[in-house]
Design brief:
Pfam families: CLP1_P. The protein is of the alpha+beta class and 429 residues long. Helix content is 24%, strand content 35%.
C-alpha cells in the first residue's frame, strides 16, 4: 500500500491487480470521475489508463505482478476517447466493433458508465464468444449495469446463450439470430434505455464483413462505435452514417493465441469446476442439435445393408425422416447419399470430451458441461457439469453439443467442427 500525489493532468497506466482509493482530489477512469472516498479496481492482467482531473492524492494497493507507470503526453488516448464519446447520446442499441486487442471491452464499459451517469437503465451484451468477459467462453452473455465498472469482468452474466464455438467463422448465421434474441430478451424483460453490444474481433475478411453487416442490419443500432487502426473496418461501415470512428489506444495489451486459449480454459473451469458426474436420460432430455434416439432404430438386417452401402461397420442407426444417423466403427465421419437417404456416420466415441450447453425451454443456458460418454443401449449420457446445474436439472430441456473438445483438465484439445456436418444435414430437410 502506498500514497501517491498526482498533479492535475498527470496520466498513469496501471496493470492489475490493483485498487485505487481517492483520498483527495479527482481521478478519471473509464468515463467516470472518482472523488474523495471513492475507489475502483484494476483486474489482474488488465490495463487501465487513469488521469488526475485535479491535484490529487491516491492510495494504491498493488497486487502481485501489478505495474504502475506515468505516461508522457500522447502515449494514451484517454482524453480523445472522453471528448468524442461525451458528445454522443448512448440511448438505444449501441454496437462496438473492431479487431482483437483494440480496446472494445474498455469502450463498452465506458459507454455503459456514460449511459448510467445520464440516469439510463443499461444492459451490456458481450458477444465475443472467444474472450467473453460476462459469462463462459462460447456464449453470448447479458447483464444489467447498475454501478460503474472499470472492466466488464466485474459484471456477472444474468442470461447466456450457448454458441458452441470460440470463433464465429463457421457459426455466424446462427450468431446473428442469437445476438438479436439477446437484444430482444433484454428489451422485453428489463426495458433498458441503452443496450451496448460488444462484438468479437473477426473483421478482416469478406465473410467477417458480411457477418458484421448482417448483424448491424438485424439490430438496427442507434450508434456504431468503431475502433479502427487504419481502414480495416471500411467494408463493414460503408454506407452507414451513424458511426463514431475512434483510434485504438497505443498501449493496449496484446494477447497471444496461447494467452487467449489459457484464458478460455480458465473460463471453462470456473463454470464447471468442481465437476459433478451427472447421468442424463436422453429420452427425457434429448440432444438439441443431433436427433439421436428421436427416430426409428434400425434392426440388424438394415444395419448390415447400410454397412455394405457405406463401407464402414454400423453399430447403431436411427432413421429420422429422410436422414439416417449411424454410429460407425473407426474414427472417420461419413456423410453419404444412399438411395433416398442422407446418411451421417458418427464415429464411435465421437462425443467424448465435447463441450455441451444445457439449455432451458427458451434456449438460454442453464450451464456448461462436458460429455464423458453416451451409452446407446441405455439412451443415457454421462456429463461432467457443475453442482449448480445438478441442482437446476429440472430446468434443462435439451443438451446442445459444442464444437470444442476438452480433456479432463478442461484444456482445449480439438475443434470438433464435424458436428456441423450432422447439423447441416439436419437443417437442410
Amino acid at each position: 500500500m502506498s500514497l501517491r500525489v498526482m498533479k492535475a493532468g498527470d496520466i498513469y497506466r496501471i496493470e492489475g491487480p490493483a485498487k485505487v482509493v481517492v483520498k483527495r482530489g479527482q481521478i478519471y477512469a473509464t468515463g467516470v470521475v472518482y472523488t474523495e472516498g471513492q475507489s475502483f479496481t484494476v483486474l489482474r492482467a488488465r490495463q487501465l489508463a487513469v488521469k488526475a482531473v485535479a491535484d490529487s492524492e491516491v492510495e494504491l494497493v498493488l497486487g502481485p505482478g501489478a505495474l504502475l507507470e506515468r505516461v508522457a503526453p500522447g502515449e494514451e488516448i484517454i482524453d480523445e476517447w472522453e471528448r468524442r464519446i461525451s458528445g454522443v447520446d448512448p440511448k438505444g442499441v449501441v454496437v462496438v466493433v473492431g479487431m482483437m486487442d483494440v480496446g472494445k471491452s474498455t469502450m463498452t464499459a465506458m459507454l455503459g458508465n456514460k449511459a448510467l451517469a445520464r440516469g439510463y437503465k443499461v444492459v451490456i451484451i458481450d458477444a465475443d464468444v472467444g474472450q467473453n468477459d460476462l459469462g463462459p467462453p462460447t456464449t453470448i452473455s447479458l447483464a444489467r449495469l447498475t454501478k460503474y465498472v472499470t472492466h466488464l469482468r466485474q459484471l456477472v452474466a444474468e442470461k447466456s446463450l450457448f454458441l458452441q464455438s470460440t470463433s464465429m467463422e463457421r457459426i455466424w448465421p446462427r450468431a446473428v439470430a442469437q445476438i438479436a434474441k439477446a437484444v430482444e430478451y433484454a428489451k422485453k424483460t428489463w426495458q433498458p434505455d441503452t443496450i451496448i453490444v460488444n462484438t468479437d474481433g473477426w473483421v478482416l475478411d469478406e465473410e467477417a464483413a458480411t457477418f458484421k453487416r448482417r448483424l448491424i442490419e438485424r439490430l438496427v443500432p442507434s450508434l456504431i462505435v468503431a475502433i479502427q487502426v487504419e481502414n480495416e473496418l471500411g467494408p463493414i461501415l460503408n454506407g452507414y452514417s451513424n458511426v463514431l470512428v475512434l483510434p485504438p489506444p497505443p498501449h493496449v495489451r496484446t494477447r497471444s493465441r496461447e494467452d487467449r486459449k489459457i484464458h478460455r480454459e480458465m473460463g471453462y473451469g470456473r463454470y464447471i469446476f468442481p465437476p459433478v458426474e451427472l447421468a442424463v436420460s436422453l429420452d427425457k432430455i434429448p440432444l438439441c442439435n443431433l436427433p439421436l434416439f428421436q427416430g426409428i432404430e434400425m434392426g440388424e438386417e438394415l444395419k448390415r445393408m447400410l454397412t455394405r452401402a457405406i463401407g464402414v461397420g454400423v453399430l447403431r442407426a436411427y432413421q429420422v425422416g429422410s436422414r439416417v444417423y449411424a454410429v460407425v466403427e473407426g474414427g472417420e465421419w461419413v456423410v453419404r447419399r444412399v438411395g433416398g437417404f442422407q446418411v451421417v456416420g458418427l464415429p464411435i466415441d465421437f462425443e467424448k470430451g465435447l463441450l455441451a450447453g444445457l439449455e432451458d425451454s427458451e434456449g438460454f443456458l442453464v450451464g456448461l458441461g462436458v460429455i464423458k460418454k453416451i451409452y446407446y443401449d441405455r439412451k443415457r449420457a454421462i456429463i461432467y457439469t457443475s453442482s449448480e446445474v445438478e441442482r437446476r436439472i429440472g430446468e434443462v430441456k435439451c443438451i446442445r453439443l459444442g464444437l470444442v473438445r476438452l480433456d479432463d483438465n478442461f484444456n482445449e484439445v480439438e475443434k470438433a467442427t464435424n458436428i456441423l456436418k450432422a447439423e447441416a444435414e439436419q437443417s437442410t430437410t
